[in-house]
């Protein structure tokens, strides 16, 4: 594995551990007012200082990382399952179904993802469940296009034709003959979708349309402490660096994997 891949793996591994164990080792309850000073600097008591209400930034950061990574992982799983499922259906189904699904996805993908998500959030609200579904649906078309291009190419190969000649059904061909040979390129797409969803969720939260108080993901932590930007407060710098390091780490790991250097 190249150095960039090792750095990416270390960053991703760190944030996975933070998401799993962070809330258990957080020094204070995330909503507790523990400091008399707002936007305090780093001290032995508050490693990342305090936020605009005197809450411990480190504790809120660890809980926010779990929400950001958890919701993003669930959303990307839904998006990939729907997109790949529809792509396989289009590849093995009749031509009219392929055309119908492809044109529908082309229509959706022509709408910028943030605008599409903003419209859906404004229409249906931003509870945790709805927000996850909205973000997932936003990225279904992108996954569909990649999965369909892979599936259509596989559908013309000899071993798939042999399966058809044996009388295998469309479901068997899609799930047994084609899907296993799509896994590796789809894994790279899953990583990219995860990055896009992290950024979209953080962007929506920064605009006040994501998770609502008292819940707070990394984007919400940036928004609620934006008044400390002029002071360079750790309360705003820490979640911003967390978002950047997470997305950069995933990108470095994907880059190493797609180059075929991950052993």
Automatic annotation (TrEMBL):
**What domain of life does the native source organism fall in?**
Bacteria
All residue ranges annotated as the ABC transmembrane type-1 domain in the record: 65-254
Annotated Gene Ontology cellular components are: DNA-directed RNA polymerase complex
| Residue ranges that the Swiss-Prot or TrEMBL entry lists as coiled coil | none
Cellular compartments annotated: Cell membrane
Q: Which Gene3D superfamilies match?
A: MetI-like
InterPro entries (UniProt xref): BP-dependent_transpt_permease, MetI-like, MetI-like_sf
Transmembrane portions of the chain: 7-26, 38-58, 70-92, 115-140, 190-212, 232-254
Its membrane topology:
Multi-pass membrane protein
SUPFAM superfamilies, alphabetically? Answer: MetI-like
Q: Which UniProt keywords apply?
A: Cell membrane, DNA-directed RNA polymerase, Membrane, Transcription, Transmembrane, Transmembrane helix, Transport
Where does the signal sequence lie? none
Protein family per UniProt: Belongs to the binding-protein-dependent transport system permease family.
Q: What is this protein called?
A: DNA-directed RNA polymerase subunit alpha
Q: What is the lineage of its organism?
A: Bacteria, Pseudomonadati, Pseudomonadota, Alphaproteobacteria, Sphingomonadales
